[in-house]
Specification:
The chain contains 18 helices and six strands. It is mainly α. It folds into three domains: 59 residues, no CATH class; 98 residues, no CATH class; 215 residues, Orthogonal Bundle (hpI Integrase, Chain A). The longest helix has 25 residues. It starts with 10 loop residues before the first helix and ends with a helix.
């Protein structure tokens, strides 16, 4: 047998204990039940046999499963395929590569929506912070403590809570998948506490501010009409950009797509097409804008760009919206100075109030729900859950659109400049 210490410092005491072991068996330590000299020798021979045997991964898993079934061990183990020994950052880069990722391709094959834009954003997070944090650490060496330390680092950088959660999700989703695919023996992200969302609420314009914004001359007609569509239909920016000639009806607008630079035309955010009411004045503004489109194609974009197969860059729309608010501020500041007032009647601090183009959608929802039931408005804006969707029969759709259309005409009568002039 291998040498076994008695734990005694006195030779006489050590010899006495050795004689007891010889007579009664060697204590196992864990259970206190003595093991005979023959049993101990057998265990050692088993261990030596395992060391000499040409075992493969399947053999190792059988040994572990047997020990677990006997209640002797409680560990997670996977076969050593070498996939878990790759650097974690390399694994993440492949995982979030839209064309190379097994995870993304599996999602797409099963009908899930997964955009190139989302994958690109995840890759950007890797280069900004995650790669430098993990360095050369292997995938199978990532621990829960690593993720906690990353959380602390993100907090020290002063990021918003939602941004910090996105960074963690960029790491945790791949780790969970690697565990499910038996690449790593356990998922270190289990039990990780997410950051509480305390982001600043998105602001919206007041009715007076909105009226002032639409009353001025916009430098870019596309930005002006896009805001008209958004404020009167609740359409998102990507949904506005995706609008083409075939989407416009007599008094309705078909929201069938959204547009992003990386993905091109895609389904709206919730994956469902919808029809929204279209005010006559907004319809005329869209058709007038269509006349400015220089591309002679079968189904042109309303918000055209220099290329016939894609709409204008969303930055142009947002820049036009912000420029309009700044112009309103300048006009009212000048008026206040002439009238010798302490402050202008209207001043839109859009940065402090977190106002951007998506605020038009919030404005639409807030105004419409003052007039009609919120669930009816949600059916048109695309805020529906599956449960709410099933509550309404298809034959109610046309009536619902008409009702929201009447409410829109009432809600935005004081905002649209051409309505006030009628």
């Amino acid at each position: 047998m291998p040498a076994r210490s008695t734990g005694e410092t006195d030779r006489g005491e050590a010899e006495f204990k050795a004689k007891l072991w010889l007579a009664n068996g060697i204590p196992t330590g864990k259970t206190g039940k003595p093991r005979s000299i023959g049993e101990a020798a057998t265990i050692e021979s088993i261990i030596r046999s395992i060391g000499k045997a040409e075992l493969n991964a399947d053999d190792a898993m059988r040994i572990i499963d047997k020990l677990k079934s006997m209640g002797l061990i409680d560990i997670a183990a996977v076969k050593n395929t070498g996939r878990g020994a790759v650097p974690f950052v390399k694994f993440l880069e492949t995982f979030w590569d839209y064309t190379k990722s097994d995870y993304i391709q599996d999602k797409l094959a099963h009908g899930y929506r997964f955009t190139r834009r989302y994958a690109r954003e995840c890759q950007k997070r890797l280069s900004r912070c995650i790669n430098s944090f993990f360095g050369d650490k292997k995938l199978n060496a990532v621990t829960a403590d690593d993720l906690k330390q990353l959380s602390i680092l993100l907090t020290d950088r002063g990021l918003s809570t939602s941004t910090k959660n996105l960074y963690l999700l960029t790491c945790c989703t791949p780790l969970k998948w690697a565990f499910e695919q038996k690449i790593i023996p356990s998922d270190p992200s289990i039990g990780l506490t997410k950051f509480s969302i305390t982001n600043k609420e998105r602001g919206i314009l007041t009715e007076a501010e909105a009226a002032a914004v639409f009353a001025i001359d916009w430098k870019d007609k596309r930005a002006f009409v896009a805001s008209l569509v958004a404020v009167t239909t609740g359409a998102r920016q990507g949904e506005c950009l995706a609008l083409r000639k075939s989407d416009i009806g007599t008094n309705t607008l078909n929201i069938a797509h959204s547009y992003s630079y990386l993905d091109g035309l895609k389904c709206p955010k919730n994956g469902k097409k919808r029809t929204v009411p279209l005010l006559p004045e907004v319809r005329l503004a869209l058709l007038d804008l269509l006349q400015d489109n220089p591309h002679k194609v079968d189904d042109p974009f309303f918000f055209f760009s220099l290329l016939p197969d894609r709409p204008v860059d969303p930055k142009v729309i947002l820049k036009g919206f912000k420029k309009a608010m700044e112009t309103v501020n300048e006009n009212y500041r000048e008026a206040a100075e002439k009238a010798k007032l302490e402050k202008p009647e209207i001043f839109i601090d859009y940065k402090a109030r977190n106002i951007d183009f998506h605020s038009w959608r919030h404005y639409f929802c807030s105004k419409i729900t003052e007039i009609i039931d919120g669930e009816k408005a949600a059916r048109v804006t695309g805020h529906l859950t599956e449960a709410v969707f099933k509550k309404y029969a298809d034959h109610k759709e046309a009536k619902n659109i008409q009702e929201v259309g009447k409410a829109a005409a009432q809600a935005f009568g004081n905002v649209l400049p051409f309505r006030k002039a009628v």
